[in-house]
Design a protein that fits this description.
This protein is α/β, with parallel strands linked by helices and about 450 residues long. It folds into 3 domains: about 10-135, 3-Layer(aba) Sandwich (Rossmann fold), CATH 3.40.50; about 140-175 and about 210-280, Serine Threonine Protein Phosphatase 5, Tetratricopeptide repeat (Alpha Horseshoe); about 290-435, Orthogonal Bundle (DNA Cyclobutane Dipyrimidine Photolyase, subunit A, domain 3), CATH 1.10.579. Helices cover about 45% and strands about 5% of the residues. The chain has 19 helices and 5 strands. Helix 6 crosses helix 11, helix 14 (about 330-345) crosses helix 16 and helix 15 runs antiparallel to helix 16. The longest helix is centred in the N-terminal third of the chain and has 21 residues, at about 55-75. The chain starts with 8 loop residues before the first strand and ends in a 6-residue tail after the last helix. The mean pLDDT is about 90. The structure holds a DNA duplex (15 and 15 nucleotides).
DNA sequence: TTTTGAGTTGTTCGA
DNA sequence: GTCGAACAACTCAAA
């Protein structure tokens, strides 16, 4: 750039897991600032590198949403979003050369990697006299906002949820009208986005769920949520909450008005985010050290059968096949397959957690780790170790018309179907013994 | 400081 | 067939 030429002065809004123009807190704050706002998104090679699959549907989803944002900006403001494929620090280095930047605005992200990354970016920007401004957007209450009276984190869900709900009463859930101020976006020549192929990713054949919340159905959520055959028994909003294509304030507003049970699920989401924030080691290690000595079986062959949905237990297999084929699994079945892996097969929750991470479109690290540890009995406020789901009983209870199982395991009644890979009673006793005998005594 | 009540989602056994 | 207890104590949170 010519030294005489003045660099454009602006602020940056960095999209991450908040891919919407509407009710976006950080974007709203950026647009309220004095400078025009340049929206950017960064595909971080460190994150992409973790994905094993060249057609990871989540990358496709992000890409699709970025295109929608871009089209919307071009249409309304003749502006566009800039997309980068590089390490965040290098991207900001480059941007600082090109523009006279005052501040970078973004929304808070509480995952261990994100915190580390944002800390580095902040230090870098500050070393150049700029600032990184972070706003709370993906939760109603951040990890330090709902604490016990002694200022330490809650470790039990129910008192946490009571405290959370009490705080919600005086909480304003009105949307931040970011979409009304898009005229403050920095105008530049529209650029067309690169394609997925530039990322060496290609299209999957997975279809994405819509983000509509059906209020009349949510009213029945408490009664319908345990039946995987019902398409709208649950909200199916996880993917949109993960990538911020829906606002959590909107969800909580709808939940408050329509379903206390669903509101509780949204509180679980924040409970586990809070837990992972305060106890980052729980991402990889058991939360309760009492259970750190369980002799997990490292049986690749048994694990493979579980992954492929060939355990011989119809409801378990239906769930696993639904997951691999669609990127989704009904919550009731998630609990069952998790219990089956940890208890019946005595395989570490961590193996299951990684498999879910790879396949779930709605994969949320905190919830995934929290719920797997819950199923294994090793987590915060977890299921007691002796609670072992009976896969046949669960089938009778929650898929009484055999509709869900027949959809995913059509051969389950025929001779072609595999024998149960392990006898329930045998597995149950083995698990009870393994947990009981390997509990660390208290010091 | 001590006490007390409670704690996501189950299953099995025996009276 | 129904129902409460056992599964196993322990820890958390608040009074």
């Amino acid at each position: 750039m010519n030294a005489c030429q003045k660099k454009p002065r602006l602020n940056i809004f960095w999209f991450r897991r908040d891919l919407r123009l509407k009710d976006n807190k950080g974007l709203y704050e950026a647009l309220m600032g004095e400078m025009p706002v340049l929206p950017i998104f960064i595909f971080d090679p460190l994150i992409l590198g973790r994905l094993e699959n060249a057609s990871d549907a989540r990358v496709e989803f992000i890409f699709k949403k970025l295109q929608e944002i871009n089209e919307s900006l071009q249409e309304k403001q003749k502006a566009s979003i800039q997309i980068f494929f590089d390490e965040p620090l290098k991207v900001f280095e480059k941007l600082l050369k090109e523009y006279e930047i005052q501040s970078v605005y973004t929304n808070e992200d509480y995952e261990p990697y994100a915190l580390l990354r944002d800390g580095k970016v902040q230090a870098f920007l500050e070393s150049k006299g700029k600032s990184l401004k972070r706003f709370k957007d993906q939760v109603i209450f951040g990890p330090d906002e709902v604490l016990k009276s002694d200022s330490t984190p809650y470790l039990v869900f129910t008192p946490f949820s009571k405290s959370w709900k009490k705080k919600l009463k005086s909480k304003d859930l009105d949307p931040h009208r970011s979409e009304d101020h898009l005229d403050h976006v920095y105008k530049q020549k529209p650029t067309s986005l690169q394609s997925l192929k530039d990322l060496s990713f290609h299209k999957s054949n997975i279809s994405f769920p819509g983000k509509s919340l059906y209020k009349s159905r949510l009213k029945e959520y408490g009664e319908t949520r345990n039946f995987p055959a019902l398409e709208h028994g649950t909200s199916r909003i996880g993917l949109h909450l993960r990538f911020g294509t829906v606002s959590v304030r909107h969800c909580v507003q709808v939940a408050r008005e329509n379903s206390k049970d669903w509101l509780n699920e949204l509180i679980w989401r924040e409970f586990f985010m809070m837990i992972l924030f305060h106890f980052p080691h729980s991402e990889n290690e058991v939360f309760k050290s009492t259970y750190s000595k369980i002799p997990w079986r490292e049986d690749q062959e048994d694990f493979r059968r579980w992954c492929e949905g060939k355990t011989g237990y119809p409801l378990v297999d239906a769930g696993m096949r639904e997951l691999v084929q669609t990127g989704y699994m009904h919550n009731r079945v998630r609990m069952l397959v998790a219990s089956f892996l940890c208890k019946h097969l005595l395989i570490s929750w961590k193996w299951g957690e990684r498999f879910f991470a790879k396949h779930l479109l709605d994969f949320e690290l905190a919830s995934n780790v929290g719920n797997w540890q819950w199923a294994a009995g090793t987590g915060v406020d977890a299921a007691p170790y002796f609670r072992i789901f009976n896969p046949s009983t669960q089938f009778k209870k929650f898929d009484p018309d055999e509709e869900y199982v027949t959809q995913w395991v059509p051969e389950w009644k025929s001779e072609k179907y595999v024998e149960p890979m392990v006898d329930h009673e045998f597995a149950r006793r083995r698990a009870l013994k393994a947990y009981k005998e390997n509990m660390e005594s208290k010091k």
